[in-house]
Design brief:
- The protein has 19 helices and 22 strands.
- The N terminus is likely disordered.
- By secondary structure, the protein is an alpha+beta fold.
- Helix content is 35%, strand content 20%.
- Helix 8 runs antiparallel to helix 19, helix 11 packs antiparallel against helix 18 and helix 13 packs across helix 16.
- It has a five-stranded antiparallel beta sheet, with helices on both faces.
- The N and C termini lie far apart (141 Å).
Length: 558
């Protein structure tokens, strides 16, 4: 009996009426929401109707596709020939760069691409001033992801926006095979500005040639030279050896040459005139002299005895003496003579003091060096200008883990050694300020560039005359006598700075101005890291340049 009921329960279907038997007695059914009504299955006719509907839709779709692809295919193929539009830049022509005499230095040449190639003068020595460019670039599909030239160094970089101009725009209509059907210009290009530099390209190439020649002959790593107008800061020449080829870097195709530049230990990418920092040596002595006169620690005619060295107590070994040497014993010298013969002992004493002679001290040495723009960027319109260093107690503490400043550090700084670092451009500008009566001029290589003149406060014109006389005496009978030429009167100061731990290498310097009577141009030349035993350096370069100018550019010497 039990088994029968169990089987019956499992297999018997329950009629929905049995479940909803009493639903009609419920008082709150909402008949509009189908409450209280028994659900019924979809009829077979309804299902058939739905299937027939979808079959008709599918048949209609197939018919339409057939019409488009087969019957009307030719019509739509014809229409598709004009279905692709592409925005394409119309490249502007980059501005031409000229030297002060109208010689083209950088221009545009027709190429195989939609834009002109950038061409540069074959004259040597102008690469660091001109710089180079990067070309517009396309992706694999032919679309420009960089649609302008980009200046990378030099004038090309500093005045990139002016040289570039503005690209135009055109719409190119192509078919499915990318064949051009038509072009429509939307916007015309605006060509870049032409620029005229202050540089005399022939003079600069000659200076570069002299730097390169002496480097090869005497074992210098490189060199740099600057020639600048003392009244307005125009740069006539700014050469750096070695250099690179701007065309090679712009094209970017000669991988061997570019790789050679990168591994060259002489650093051809470095613009030594602007970005190279060097220990100055004795070329800072004119500025220490001005500080000593201005601070009243010595008069121009007061003499100091140089026996070849001075000695002071060694701070680390009291029983020993620290010896600070001169390059020779000069005897009794006043300020003019000390500048002419470059006496170290004289400047040790007026810089740091010795026995009864007071010194101006390291802070005043730094003060007067900074007044003439040393240790600070000049603001020239070229990229990558270096700052330099004028050492002081704070600098030493930071560099040497809290070590105190000592009088010996002042001595070495007073003759341009220790941590002193300057650029050739800074020195040309500083010397120009001595020559023009105490005015800092803004160095620039673009003719139209204007800058503010800065009058140096606290410098007496009579003190400047003393220093100028000392520099002229150096040419007549002192260390710069190699510049004592008959065709122009020059005032100058030499410098030899020891570098490296072993002191086997030196930087050779010459700075000065001409003509002596009415200065027009200042100069600074440095030959980098030559053998210490070599006696021919920067002065020889400047002597050769003056001799060349006397023949080829006499107007600069008048």
């Amino acid at each position: 009996m039990f088994s029968f009921k169990k089987k019956y329960t499992r297999n018997r279907e329950i009629d929905p009426d049995e479940i909803f038997l009493d639903s009609s007695n419920l008082p709150d059914f909402d008949v509009h929401q189908f409450e209280g009504r028994i659900e019924k299955p979809i009829t077979k006719n309804t299902v058939r109707f739905v299937w027939i509907f979808f079959l008709l839709v599918q048949a209609l779709f197939i018919f339409r596709v057939g019409m488009l692809q087969v019957v009307q295919g030719d019509v739509f193929v014809a229409r598709s020939e004009n279905n692709r539009l592409q925005n394409t830049p119309i490249f502007s022509e980059r501005g031409i760069i000229y030297d002060r005499n109208g010689v083209e230095l950088a221009w545009n040449s027709p190429g195989e691409k939609e834009f002109f190639s950038r061409s540069y003068t074959a004259a040597r020595g102008l690469a660091h001033v001109l710089g180079y460019v990067g070309y517009p670039a396309v992706d694999r599909r032919g679309f420009y992801y960089q649609d302008e030239f980009s200046g990378k160094e030099g004038i090309e970089k500093f005045y990139d926006s002016a040289l570039n101009g503005k690209n135009g725009l055109k719409i190119i209509e192509t078919n499915a095979l990318l064949e051009v059907q038509s072009e429509s210009v939307i916007k015309l290009p605006e060509n870049g500005e032409n620029l005229t530099l202050t540089v005399d390209s022939v003079l600069q190439s000659k200076l570069f040639e002299l730097l390169a020649s002496l480097s090869a002959e005497r074992g210098f790593v490189g060199g740099a030279g600057v020639l600048m107008d003392v009244d307005n800061g125009e740069i006539l020449a700014l050469a750096s050896f070695p250099e690179y080829d701007p065309s090679v870097l712009s094209e970017g195709k000669d991988i061997m040459a570019i790789g050679g530049y990168r591994i060259d230990e002489r650093k051809p990418f470095l613009n030594r005139a602007v970005s190279g920092v060097y220990t100055p040596g004795s070329i800072v002595k004119p500025f220490v002299a001005l500080g000593a006169l201005s601070e009243g620690v010595i008069t121009p005619d007061q003499k100091i005895l140089s026996t070849g060295s001075i000695e002071i107590a060694n701070p680390y070994f009291p029983d020993l003496k620290s010896v600070f040497v001169d390059w020779k014993a000069h005897g009794w010298v006043d300020m003019r003579d000390a500048l002419a013969v470059s006496s170290n002992v004289y400047f040790y004493e007026v810089g740091g003091g010795f026995e009864k002679q007071k010194g101006i001290g390291i802070l005043n040495i730094k003060k007067y060096a900074q007044l003439f723009g040393l240790g600070e960027p000049t603001g020239i319109d070229l990229s990558g200008e270096a700052k330099g260093v004028i050492p002081d107690p704070q600098w030493k503490s930071e560099m040497f883990d809290g070590e105190p400043w000592r009088v010996g550090d002042t001595y070495n700084t007073a003759i341009g050694q220790y941590g002193f670092q300057v650029t050739p451009l800074q020195m040309a500008r500083a010397v120009a300020a001595i020559a023009n009566g105490g005015v800092l001029v803004p160095p620039h290589v673009l003719q139209e560039r204007a800058g503010d003149l800065v009058q140096i406060d606290g410098i007496d014109a009579r003190d400047l005359d003393v220093v100028i006389d000392g520099m002229r005496r150096g040419v007549v009978s002192g260390t710069a006598s190699g510049l004592n030429v008959s065709f122009v009167r020059v005032a100058a100061k030499t410098g030899t700075a020891e570098v490296g731990v072993s002191k086997k290498l030196v930087h050779s310097w010459i700075v000065g101005f001409f003509p002596y009577e009415k200065p027009k141009f200042s100069f600074a030349v440095v030959m980098e890291k030559g053998p210490s035993e070599n006696v021919i350096g920067a002065l020889f370069v400047m002597r050769q340049l003056l001799e060349w100018m006397a023949v080829e550019r006499p107007e600069y010497l008048e």
